[in-house]
Automatic annotation (TrEMBL):
Keywords: Disulfide bond, Glycoprotein, Hydrolase. Pfam families: Arylesterase. InterPro entries: 6-blade_b-propeller_TolB-like, Arylesterase, Serum_paraoxonase/arylesterase. Belongs to the paraoxonase family. This is Arylesterase. GO terms for molecular function: arylesterase activity. The keyword NADP does not apply. The keyword Hydrolase applies.
Amino acid sequence: MKNPSATPEEILVKYPSEFRPHGISLLKTKNTYRLYVISHPEFFKIHTIEIFERKGKEWFHVGTLTDPLLTNPNDLSVVSENEIYLSNDHGKGNILRYLWDDLFQIKRSEISYYDGKTWSNLGNPLSFGNGILYTKDSQGNEFLYRSGYMDQSVFQFQIRREQGKPILGKPKRILINFGPDNLEIDSKGRIFAVTHGSGYQFLRHIGNPEYLSPTIVFRISSDGTFQEVFANSGDLISAGSTAIPFEGRLYIAQVFNPYILNCEYSNSD
């Protein structure tokens, strides 16, 4: 990422059969990297988390997680091998049930939690949950952020523990008036939320890439205030999904097209 002209390389590994990747989370420990990848081997029926580990310069597939509580996983935030937060964007059902839930904004998309042995739900369902991110500040306070696409908001939960298990209190709703997608954090603890400027234009873009879909990036402070740091009608990047700030650059990915936008960015303010 330090080289603006660098090109991505495919991870050469023996992938599981019917591997259909979606959200990802990278776990770095002292000596290893583990990449956790949501996959949809059979849409509406089977969903998994595939785990890959880098040993030396090579990657290996080292495990699979699955559970009925993974109803339609969209994104995940891996804290450790024994702590995973996962955002489902819909409850269990077929395409007609998904459309019904979206049309009437029925809240069935749960937060699922893995403690290293079993999965459980943490409550607070939305009508369309999206990105999810665990953070811990310098005072040891733990927070969980979650995108609510239909709510046009990012929700901030403070986490308290009961016998080690996370309990989510009533969230602070950060209304940004656009549908947020994935969430990332910078070195100062601020959250970067990529949003879709128009649901209608996003749907048109799905059907025809020639139709542009606006991308807007917001930076959210821990007190809930936010500011726009990037906006584009879609000619530079359509249907943006993720924004990562790194050493004076802002890297913006997208849902459909095979490139990442590399922008200049100042992290000083």
